[in-house]
Amino acid sequence: MQVNHGKALSLKLGALLIVFIAVLTLGFDVPWYHAAWISIAVGLIAYGVGDMFVLRKFGNLIATLADFGLVFFLTWFFLWILDFDIGTETSFVLLALYTALVTAVVEFIFHGWLLKHKREEAHVHSTR
Length: 128
Description:
Structural class: mainly alpha
Distance between the termini: 18 Å
Radius of gyration: 16 Å
Number of domains: 1
Number of helices: 4
Helix content: over 70%
Order of helices and strands: HHHH
Number of strands: 0
Strand content: under 5%
């Protein structure tokens, strides 16, 4: 996949930073710095696995579902490692689920952008 990885990673990490802070910090009082580093770690792993491998081989829907599972597991895992008090009303699983659901929507759009960019690059190279 011919893509400017710096541009794609910046776009993805920026979008995930917004999602994680909106869901975890604004929604559930997770400190912003925890939400920020979790989003960066999850984003880098998801870019390598989901966007560069699964999306290329299986398409947008499967890559989005894979990203949902990956984001859910990694978010739960990192929240569990941090083990801070989030109150008795909510569990880490619920926080990870909400984050993964919102992230899946963002990932679906991001995958569309990546695929469109790939087609445009292929067209530019074929007309030279």
